[in-house]
Amino acid sequence: MALPLLPGNSFNRNVGKEKFHKSQHWGFCNNVMMLVSDEKPGIGGEPLLGQKIKPKCSIYPKGDGSDVPSWVAFDKQVLSFDAYLEEEVPDKSQTNYRIRYYKIYFYPEDDTIQVNEPEVKNSGLLQGTSIRRHRITLPPPDEDQFYTVYHFNVGTEVVFYGRTFKIYDCDAFTRNFLRKIGVKVNPPVPCPEDPYMKIRREVLEHVEPLRPYESLDTLKKFLQYHGKILCFFCLWDDSVSMFGDRRELILHYFLCDDTIEIKELLPHNSGQDAMKMFLRRSKLPKNCPPRVYQPGQITDRAVLNLYGDFIKNQADGFLMDRYKLGEVDQEFYKDSDLSLGVTINVWGRKVLLYDCDEFTKSYYKSKYGIENFTSVSCKPPSPPPKIERKFPPYNGFGSEEDSLRTCIGLKPTPHRRNFKKFMEKDSYGFKSNILRFFAKLVTDKCVDLDRMFVISYYLSDDTISVFEPIERNSGITGGMFLKRSRVKKPGQEVFKSELSEYIKAEDLYIGVTVNVNGYLFRLLNADEYTLNYMEQNTDKYPFSNLKLALQKLKQEEAKSRELKQVFRAADREHTKKVDYNTFRDILMSFTVGNLSEQEFVTIVRHYRAPEDTCSDVDFLIALAHEKFKKNMFENFDSFIYSCVYEDREKKNVLPTKDIKRLCKSSRLPLSDDLLESLLSRFEDSEKQIDYKSFFSALNWRKNPVPELQPASCLKERCEDIWLGMPSPIPAKYIDYLTLLKDVFGLEEE
């Protein structure tokens, strides 16, 4: 009876096996068939019976982590071994052999080895890289194998190309690495000393100079202290002399050659000539010489005589003064002579050292053990009391600034404007930097009650101009009411010594009454740029701060339910929005005058409901058609063909950036702002555009639109004309439900 074909009941060894390839053991050599290799495995890569395959690289024990290849696991890891080599010397007059020291680097990622010999000064040997990085085979008879990590240990010998290296130590990382893979690391072995270097060191210790002259080798000191400079802050008080004053100095002491240089710190507008150096770099003597030294009097060495063939103008040698007769004894300032509070003699000038930098402090602390570096107080004597300058009052001629300039100097100079503010706040591009307000004249005269004005405030120079729009058959001329000028605040004395205060940008906001040269104007509204500017600069315009306005509403939280019911009663069609006039009446009665006009406009602008943009799209298309007619542009079919070609998925839509790129590459005669506005109107929520409807709407031949009506021409044109009078209301409808949710947290029921 046969066993069922279930796991555990079959004796077939090939069950579950996937690899059945055979290795190529036979080949041809010189047209003779022979056994190529006896180390190749059997069927499926399994070893043959009794076969032991020698590993070709290091086999590391498997860990608990991820099974990554060795070139990833051991990347940038190097095992370092210290070894030495005994080398026989051909010339055995001094020593029979030499000891050469090496660094053996083993790279676990690919079993490569590199041997370097550190450079030894005056060794007479070519040192550096002895064996470049590569895999090294074992010595015979195992030359078919390579060195692995298990062949290296402290106290063992390795043979590289016939040269025997004795390993005597390794670094801490290598010792830890070998211990982790299961190798017992031997303790360090003493390293023998090179006999030649030992003999050379003993000879150099007993060598004495043959010439008795003093050595002037300053190279060691230069290399040790090059670039290291001590910095002291000094004071030379010359106020006792005529026309003298206190001089601030900086002393630099160069440690490489013990020289000193002094620079002078001149304040701005000091009236003194700016000198590059107060004292050029040189050694500074402690005592001033009584007279100027003659040339050649101060020398390092004195030559007594020359000897040789003077007929041929050739000297064979010279004789120097070994006893230094006539040497001038000079004592110079050293680093040990400089410290805080010390007064040094700089060629007859008493200079006080009162402070130093951090490097100087660390230098004296490490070399001389000085801990106290308290700076010396050298404050100048208190100046005499400054007499307050009084100016005469304004006499009424010219401006106040010009009259004040005549009192400052004998030669009057014009008043300097704030040029930086003018450059920053002057109009450029689409940024006008002009605040425009729609105002009404506050008066008791019935004729002037309905007069409207445009008040413009220029941020570049704080000037104000008032313009009255021209209305036909009104009986009023209109035009420029007040030319551009600065307007003084009311209630100030005219003839006074101080400058008058003028109306600033912070004094203008919706709802305030402004006195302009005796005329009272009530600000009713502002243009879009002005409102945006005030909302962006809430530090200057607190009434345009939405958070402060909402906090005033939140103070009436007890009436929130009542307010919601009033809004619902006004919203009969349940559209979740009310018109502007209804919203104003409800909110103003709710706050009982606690909310200003500017704060109310800020709330309305934030919570206004979106309006229908169809008229805006028609206006943009009409403007684009006018551009196309002027340029005789009619090639709209090619745009649609190009879009159909790029629309691989045949969805009749393309991304907005592709449509814009196509219009730019085809040089569509539209400005960047107009093109961006048109694309934004035809863009859907996924930022894609129906290209057929877009280009069909732009085709002025097939889909014409009514032409733009020209603006009515005014009798007088000036820069204060407010093109397009502002709407009397900032928004048509307001989303009251969102306001109640943000302020009181009331949800829709």
UniProtKB/TrEMBL annotation:
List, alphabetically, the GO terms of the cellular component aspect: axonemal microtubule
Instruction: Give its localization.
Output: Cytoplasm, Cytoskeleton, Flagellum axoneme
Q: Where is the DM10 domain?
A: 75-182, 226-368, 431-538
Report which residue ranges the record marks as coiled coil.
546-573
**Is Repeat among the key words of this record?**
yes
Domain (EF-hand) ranges: 558-593
| Entry keyword set | Cell projection, Cilium, Coiled coil, Cytoplasm, Cytoskeleton, Flagellum, Repeat
Q: Which SUPFAM superfamilies match?
A: EF-hand
GO MF, one annotated term: calcium ion binding
Gene3D superfamilies, per database record: 2.30.29.170, EF-hand (1.10.238.10)
Q: Which GO terms describe its biological process?
A: regulation of neuron projection development
What PANTHER family does UniProt report for this protein, alphabetically?
A: EF-HAND DOMAIN C-TERMINAL CONTAINING PROTEIN (PTHR12086), EF-HAND DOMAIN-CONTAINING FAMILY MEMBER C2 (PTHR12086:SF11)
What is the annotated quaternary arrangement, including any partners?
Answer: Microtubule inner protein component of sperm flagellar doublet microtubules.
- Cited function: Microtubule inner protein (MIP) part of the dynein-decorated doublet microtubules (DMTs) in cilia axoneme, which is required for motile cilia beating.
- Record-given protein name: EF-hand domain-containing family member C2
Organism encoding this protein: Theropithecus gelada
| Taxonomic placement | Eukaryota, Metazoa, Chordata, Craniata, Vertebrata
